[in-house]
Amino acid sequence: MIDKLVAEENAKQWEHREKQWDREDQARINLLKNVYQNREQHIELKKKQKGEHEWMKQYERQNMETEVERQNRAYEEQMVKTSIAKKMHQTDVLRQVGERDRTMRRELQEVMYEERAAKLAELEYQRRIQAEKDNNTQMLNTWKSTVNGH
Predict the structure, then answer these.
(1) What secondary structure does DSSP assign to 5-68, as a single string?
(2) What is the tens place of the pLDDT at every residue in 55-64?
């Protein structure tokens, strides 16, 4: 009977130890599950952070490229405006030079016409004087011949 009680006590203690071991095993399993879960969450968080970081880099790169394109367009537009302004200025200067040349040619032509008209008037005047001289000489000769002839 003592043996039986000892055996029952031993069985009871054994069962108690096995339950304790099972609880400890379950606790280790739960702990490992918890560690693995935490590790997985940490890895997922890292992935998410890395993804966000990559997205942010891409976003900033795209913003920079957009800004560079905008600045390039603005620079090109400014260059076109400057070029147009230079061309307009050049055209204006050429127009002014052309107008000055036309005015100078017109004035020279007017002077030339006036000089020619004066020369023609002088020639006409000289011709009239010569014609008057010739007429007077002829009249004088006619008069002399009539006076000497009588």
Answers:
(1) HHHHHHHHHHHHHHHHHHHHHHHHHHHHHHHHHHHHHHHHHHHHHHHHHHHHHHHHHHHHHHHH
(2) 999 999 999 9
Q: Which percentage of the chain shows pLDDT scores above 90? A: 87
> What integer pLDDT is reported at residue 5 of this predicted model?
84
CA dihedral over 34, 36, 38, 41, signed as positive or negative: negative
| Long-range contacts of the stretch 76-82 (C-beta < 8 A, 24+) | none
What tokens does 90 get?
A: 């050049």
- End-to-end CA distance of the chain: give it in Å, rounded: 217
Residues in the chain: 150
- Cα angle: 26, vertex 30, 31; to 5 degrees: 115
pTM score, whole prediction? 0.44
**What span, in angstroms and rounded, lies between the C-alpha atoms of 45 and 38?**
10
